Amino acid sequence: MIVAFSVSPTPGDETGGVSEAVARAVKVVRESGLPNSTNAMFTNIEGTWDECMDVVKRAVAAAGEGSARVGLVLKADIRPGYDSGQLDAKVERVEQHLTGAE
């Protein structure tokens, strides 16, 4: 399974920024040992249902330290039989179509 998620505590810093809190969440993800990637909007992780949900739960808690409220956006790709390697493989399949190298 691949999970894409984004956490945002309320309120942010004096400028509305949440990068410090998001960094705490990303640290949890990176220390989890699960395959992962982070971009400007989401963090993606790959693992079993229980592994992914545990990491998301801990990341939300880390981002929410000192905050009364945390927003969570989560999207999951649940595809039985595809347990690993899909975080990169999905992108590679798209790139193959773009370059015509099928």
TrEMBL record:
<dbReference type="GO" id="GO:0005829">
    <property type="term" value="C:cytosol"/>
</dbReference>
<feature type="domain" description="Thiamine-binding protein">
    <location>
        <begin position="3"/>
        <end position="95"/>
    </location>
</feature>
<comment type="similarity">
    <text>Belongs to the UPF0045 family.</text>
</comment>
<protein>
    <submittedName>
        <fullName>Uncharacterized conserved protein YqgV, UPF0045/DUF77 family</fullName>
    </submittedName>
</protein>
<dbReference type="Pfam" id="PF01910">
    <property type="entry name" value="Thiamine_BP"/>
</dbReference>
<dbReference type="InterPro" id="IPR051614">
    <property type="entry name" value="UPF0045_domain"/>
</dbReference>
<dbReference type="InterPro" id="IPR002767">
    <property type="entry name" value="Thiamine_BP"/>
</dbReference>
<dbReference type="InterPro" id="IPR029756">
    <property type="entry name" value="MTH1187/YkoF-like"/>
</dbReference>
